[in-house]
Amino acid sequence: MGNIQSLMEYDFRKIETYWQKRWKEDRVYAVSNESSKPKHYVLDMFPYPSGAGLHVGHPLGYIASDIYSRYKRLKGYNVLHPMGFDSFGLPAEQYALETGQHPAETTKKNIATFKRQLDKIGFCYDWSREVQTSDPRYYKWTQWIFLQLFNSYFCNTQQKARPISDLVKKYETTGSKHFTAEEWKGFSEKEKGDWLMKRRLAFSAYGEVNWCEALGTVLANDEVVNGVSERGGFPVEKRKMRQWFLRITAYADRLLEGLEKVDFSDAMKEMQKNWIGRSEGAEIEFAVGDSQSAVSEVPLKLRVYTTRPDTIFGVDFMVIAPEHELVEQITTTEQKEAIDKYLAYVKSRSDRERQAETKTITGCFTGAYAVNPFDGRAIPIWTAEYVLAGYGTGAIMAVPCGDQRDFLFAKHFGIPITNIIGGHYNGDEANPTKEAVLENSGFLNGLLMKDAIGIAVNKIEEMGIGKRKVNYKMRDAGFSRQRYWGEPFPIIWNDGIAIPLDAEELPLELPHVDKYGPGPEGEGPLANLKEWVYLTTDSFKHTSGAVEHSVDLTPNPSPKERGMKEHPGYMNSTVEEWKKTIAFARQNRKEPTEAEAIMWSELRNRKIKDFKFRRQHPVAGYIPDFICLEKSLIVEIDGEYHNQEEQRKFDQGREAWLLENGFTMIRFSNQEVLGDINSVLITIEYALLQDESRPGTGSHSPLPWRGAGGEVKRETSTMPGYAGSSWYFLRFMDPNNTETFCDRKISDYWNQVDLYVGGTEHAVGHLLYSRMWTKVMFDLGLISFDEPFRKLLNQGMIQGSSRFVYRLKDDINRFVSFGLKEKYDAVDIHVDVNLVDGVELNMEEFRKWKPEFAEAEFILEDGKYICGSEVEKMSKSKYNTVNPDELCNKYGADTFRMYEMFLGPVEQSKPWDTKGIEGVHRFLRKLWRLFFDEVKGKIWTEDKATDAELKILHRTIKKIEEDTERFSFNTAVSSFMICVNDLADLKCHKREVLEKLLILLTPYAPHIAEELWQHLGNTGTVLDSKYPVYDPLLLVESTKEYPVSINGKLRTTINLSLDLDQQQVEGSVLQNEVVQKWLEGKTPKKIIYVKGKMVNVVI
RNA sequence: GCCCAUGUGGCGGAAUUGGUAGACGCAGCAGACUCAAAAUCUGCCGUUCGCAAGGGCGUGAAGGUUCGAUUCCUUUCGUGGGCACCA
User: Fold this and answer.
1) Who wins on pLDDT, A872 or A931?
2) Which of A99, A235, A318, A576 maximizes the CB count within 10 A of its CB?
3) Are A896 and A884 in contact (CB under 8 A)?
């Protein structure tokens, strides 16, 4: 391994390349699912592989988790530390819109770049477990889990998810509060579907979206700025569209309770609690009239939610959300025009704007009044943007003396304010107290507000005008996106009834598209693929006219002994009949013949030239034994009954129909398959490759003519980014399983993620969703734990430190230095931070950077061009990104890893500054010199270590272990530096000390540690060694240099034995010169002595 | 606006339960080695008054609790993150 000459210097490039290759070859990071060691699961939040590649901000958390994983491994754990990619998402689609490159292509490229960059830093990922959410082998299971959500409901009695079939049974036997069992049985399919949809955990309903007419698409809140689209500046308005949702609100209480048993930071728990926003209060109904006196003829009710029913007598007006359906119904003719104008204004405002702007108060009177049920007072009903439709009932009762927002509103519009809290209200601002004694409050007069809350609710319930209610700020999670690059929903709409695909039909692969624009009605791009979307013959004909067929060609049903002979025609089969077909197919799968079983083991999992086969997969009413949809090739295995005359006739009819509809069929007999499977396979392979031009039905499941009668079409939305990332931690445990999302035994073994590392930006999105999914899967008995992440470590963001040059407005080739810019009229321009040393611009490089700067001239200060600087998000567009590759090339991965950690606490955000990396690099070189001398070569010795040397070592072992355990990696790096400095001072080159130090260092700087470990003559990787144990006896001190303060101010120090008692200490302290000087002859009032800490003399 | 985090030398930061503020590193200054450079090593390095000894001030700001506060409490300002279709 190299000659002595090359060993004298720390040649990190050679060392790191060598070991990265060796580790890969030796598969040292492969993790087994079976081990006698205790398990530990360390996970990083899924990266999105952006086109910009990795910048120095990304690896911060990855380095931290890598250090921890290696540390745990040295401590004797079986450590799972995988990495994969959250590869569906909007940026790739956006990029496709701009450049026409397919997201699959760009995503593939980006992932390759990410992996190359990650490997350069020397992470210990088990790449054999890599998963990508956009891989059909992965999203097959995302879709499968979605179907579990779809097929489940939240049982309020048991407070858990249960199969929807249980609910159906209940409806069939006992009905519900809305209908009797008899009524249920009489419902149409559509009615039944609608009722069930109200309970499913994944359900479809109408939801509001930001609609941009000009772009014909739905926009994210981010993409809407000041009511217009960020791209193009087109107007945006709220619009209702059919969407999928996850019923996360059903889990609100359990998500709150679950926080008790996880180790997240208080801040994180706080954010989740606030997001869920549980409040207890009452829902109250008010009668509505259209004038101050008369209640309208049609009895309208206004329902409001309030947490303060005790203030009911202080209600001076009502506010309903502008979207509220009542607005239209109650607005009086006089107010109609004003209201219409106001609604138009509100439509253009985003939710965030509506809440953020409290300075400008807007609102409009509807002309209608509500009636206070207790004193009959008429209360004017207003609508205002500060009340959002999604919260509570979308209506509030306003109590200006107790709520500041209501107060300001009342003042602004001159609504008289009723004071119900006497002296607690001063007329200048509202007072939200619960401690006041109520006045002007009818039956509540004289009560303390907090006592009145319960009494008021009781009365309201008694009167039947309202009820106690727990409310959540959290809304059900929108789960569909009108986008292309995401998981397709395994759902077919048949006359408005959502029909799930069968599990065997998954994955429903995302079809290829060439255009990424929105569909005709603002749907996702998939809506443009007519032949993919429409599944009925009729609708197919309407849209493309491509397929003609006659009802006479209706094929024979499945073999008669399977009981399908009497089955009616498929073309017009009802949903019920179709379900029956599916059931038959499922049954068939469970009972394969011997030949079928053999054939399936050969065809499944893309064993033939990567062609995907399905078995017993219905095509119309016909269920082929095996089918390759991509090639429309059917493989049949015929048993004895095919020799019967009648059956042969059926077969022929069926085959003719299939051929006419573009399918090919090969038939084998049982004997052929059992006798010579190889030649059978060759025949199939030949057929697959033979006709390249065959159009096929695409790789997706065609499911033609499912159901019938009206429009039968696929769901064209796709799932959002968090679908794939809500359960990926489970897939890493068993990434290649084709039978299930994750084998139960394996998920029982790995269990929860022990350490989850990622940014706080995921606090309420991803983390809540994956917690919910985990709970559902737990309820359904799919896994054995109901919280995914046991401990969470938040990683701060590394910000960019941007640099600016200042270009004169009137002379675009002249640039003025930062200190002089005030004297000129100049504009700031981002300059690439890599062209700047600190703040000093490299002018030569700058001229070369862009052609427009080639002729640049500079106005200097002190002969230098000084740049301005600002801390911003690290982003390519701001030219402030720093690429980890370059740093690894220049200083090595070990230096880079340690420097990232040395920057400060992982949890904290900080701007990146490459300066300072030198110091860490110097440390590693200094370490190297403990082993090798420039002239003498190797210099380590086998001598016995002295007490002083052992003390340094053991102090370091203790410190590094403690710091690593509490994720204080920056102080650990400092401790390494101190240790090496101390050992160098003592000229300690003893193997006894150095070898242990290398093990400590392995998690932080794996390459250099491994290299030196091997030089010391060890075989096998240092990762398999045992973590040293520190000996407390070596660290015992007998004396301490005590700080002595007078009145809390440090004046001197005294060296004292550690086992002195208070009296002895007082004696020594009082004799001290400095203390006597400060005492000026007085007697101290008190002497405080904290053993081992300090002494304070109080005068 | 609401929720969360955060603020310490020229810079990144340390001070683990309220107990010696500024560890460690960068930058800077002075020196050694060298023909020179690099590398390495040694010393200084919050601020202010003072020849020195020694003292004053100092953890965003103001107030409080305490023998003692960077640490706890109240108020306030600045910065960063999130606010439901970016991931």
Assistant:
1) A931
2) A318
3) yes
Domains of chain A, first to last: 35-129+251-277+474-487+719-797 (3.40.50.620), 145-250 (no CATH), 280-472 (3.90.740.10), 545-702 (3.40.960.10), 799-872 (no CATH), 886-1030 (1.10.730.10), 1039-1098 (3.10.20.590)
Q: Which nucleotide is nearest to A985 (CA to C1')?
A: B41
Six-digit token pair at A367?
């002309």
Q: How far is CA A967 from CA A327, A789, A795, A916, A964, in A?
A: 55, 17, 11, 21, 5
Chain B nucleotides covered by protein, CB below 7 Å:
1-6, 11-16, 19-21, 23-27, 39-42, 55-56, 67-69, 79-87
Nearest Cα residue to A827 out of A811, A838, A849:
A811
Closest CA to A503 of A620, A582, A612, A602: A582
CA-to-CA dists, residue A423 to A415, A420, A430, A440, angstroms: 20, 9, 12, 13
The tens digit of pLDDT for each residue in A202-255 reads 999 998 888 888 888 888 887 887 778 887 888 888 888 899 999 999 999 999
A241: Cβ under 7 Å from strand B? Answer: yes
Question: Does any strand B atom come closer than 7 Å to the Cβ of A1062?
Answer: no
* Residue A965's pLDDT band (cuts 50, 70, 90): very high
The Cα diameter of chain A in Å comes to: 126
- At CA A278, angle to CA A274 and CA A284, rounded to 5? 135
The first and second tokens of residue A517, run together, are: 């624009």
More confident residue, A581 or A1096: A1096
Chain A window 737-776: residues with CB closer than 7 Å to nucleic chain B are 759-766
Residue nearest B5, CA–C1′ metric: A267
- How long is the CA A57 to C1' B15 vector, in angstroms? 27
Q: In the sheet where A712-714 sits, what is the strand order?
A: A497-500, A491-494, A712-714
Amino acid in position A483? R
Report d(CA A216, CA A76) in Å as an integer: 58
**CB A975 within 8 Å of CB A956:** yes
Q: Average pLDDT in the A822-837 region?
A: 82
Predicted confidence (pLDDT) per residue in A703-732, tens digit: 444 444 456 789 999 999 999 999 999 999
Per the listing, tokens 């002859």 go with A1081
